[in-house]
Design brief:
This protein starts with a helix and ends with a helix. It has helices at about 5-20, 25-40, 45-50, 55-70, 75-85, 95-100, 105-110, 120-135, 135-145, 150-160, 160-175, 185-195, 200-215, 225-230, 235-250, 255-265, 280-290, 290-310, 310-320, 325-330, 335-355, 355-365, 365-375, 385, 390-395. Helices cover about 70% and strands about 0% of the residues. With about 400 residues, the chain is an all-alpha fold. It comes from Sinocyclocheilus rhinocerous. InterPro entries: ARM-like, ARM-type_fold, DUF5578. Pfam families: DUF5578 (PF17741).
């Protein structure tokens, strides 16, 4: 027979559940706030003690209410945090199973796709998915089988809140680890995200790709174009991550394509680029129309220098792609000083490493300019006017 204390506890829980069942939105919101205040951080045994060994009855009611109301955002933040108390509790395996059996993963993924919901609510949903993914391989597979990679990736691309973006990125990274069946799906999802418009999202995705690439081992050819295009970014942190990923990929099968692309961007084709709204003034637009291409030219020269300095084998591959001709062309670009500077530094490395290159460059520049170049290559663009008229000559001779 139950003790009087146990009877009182059961009676209290039944009253709690009855109040929940009869309560409206305001009542349930208050009850959830009280629940979070009292039970956040508790273990599974502690929750069972609090609910007289029938905590699952409250979890079932909670998940049912979420499924009925999540599209309207009704107390969704409180609801998801309350579910988190159950899922994050130590020894919470039974709660996890109960939540999954009623379609919990699908509900969370559907929340991510609701445009009308706040980013804060989506962040809470992502946190719950992270808890589920951390429970083991079979749970990661369940998320992926439910088209979770696509849902999380789209949430990352569309979100305007850094906290949501970072949580989504962390979840994608988690899904790539210890998940051999779906690691390539995650990898391809990350590559697709390289074309998103948010600089913060681009930075996060590039960083995760550097972590995930060794896991998948084989680089997919579709990574080349969007990765090289990110060298056009106006954001230095995005350029940095892109260059670091290019360096990582030098040991992969896409290396030739990346090197060809880098060299080609030293001599960009003329094109017009979509202008940002703040640049719609005609005079400003005229000056900045080609800025992304110029930034890409400078970043390509910088990347070429870094790669050549790291590997003699790569530097010889670059020479076979006529990199010297293209670097000389970039040095003649008077529209962008950094492109000239980066090209000068890269060219200096090749000149000092290969006597035959030194001979060709000296002949192309002329003795006077070449001597100035060798003394202070970083400032060589101040002398470019001396040999601008001879650009056609050295372009054809190298």
């Amino acid at each position: 027979m139950s003790s009087s204390k146990e009877q009182a506890s059961i009676s209290q829980v039944m009253c709690f559940l009855h109040e929940w069942d009869q309560g409206n939105k305001t009542v349930r919101s208050r009850m959830l706030s009280d629940f979070l205040a009292k039970n956040t951080g508790k273990t599974c045994p502690e929750l069972e003690l609090e609910f007289a060994q029938v905590a699952s009855l409250f979890l079932a009611r909670l998940t049912a209410w979420i499924r009925l109301t999540y599209m309207f955002g009704t107390c969704l933040d409180l609801q998801l945090r309350a579910v988190g108390v159950f899922l994050s509790a130590n020894s919470s395996h039974q709660y996890m199973i109960e939540f999954l059996e009623v379609g919990g993963v699908l509900t969370l993924l559907e929340i991510l796709g609701q445009d009308k919901l706040k980013d804060g609510d989506k962040t809470e949903a992502l946190c719950l998915l992270q808890i589920i993914a951390n429970a083991g391989q079979k749970y990661k597979e369940l998320i992926c089988e439910s088209y979770g990679v696509k849902a999380v990736a789209e949430c990352l691309a569309k979100s305007e809140t850094e906290g949501t973006q970072e949580t989504a990125a962390a979840l994608l990274e988690s899904l790539a680890h210890g998940n051999p069946k779906y690691k390539n799906q995650v990898y391809k999802g990350l590559i697709a995200l390289l074309t998103c418009t948010s600089p913060r999202a681009q930075q996060l995705v590039l960083h995760i790709l550097r972590i995930v690439q060794p896991i998948v081992k084989t680089a997919h050819h579709s990574i080349v174009e969007p990765l090289l295009n990110l060298l056009r970014s106006l954001h230095l942190e995005v350029q940095y991550e892109a260059i670091e990923l290019i360096i990582e990929l030098m040991q992969s099968e896409v290396r030739p394509a990346l090197l060809r692309g880098l060299v080609a961007f030293l001599k960009p084709t003329k094109e017009r680029n979509t202008k940002h709204k703040i640049l719609e003034d005609p005079e400003v637009a005229k000056m900045t129309d080609s800025l992304p291409v110029l930034l890409q030219q400078a970043a390509s020269a910088k990347t070429i220098r870094i790669l050549a300095q790291r590997s003699e084998e790569i530097s010889k591959e670059l020479l076979s792609l006529r990199v010297i001709h293209h670097l000389l062309y970039a040095m003649g670009n008077q529209e962008h000083a950094d492109a000239q500077r980066q090209a000068s530094l890269a060219l200096e490395y090749f000149v000092r490493m290969y006597p035959v290159v030194e001979e060709h460059v000296c002949r192309a520049m002329g003795t006077r300019l070449f001597e100035s170049f060798m003394v202070r290559s970083i400032y060589i663009y101040t002398y470019i006017l001396w040999w601008k008229t001879g650009k056609e000559h050295f372009s054809n001779s190298v």
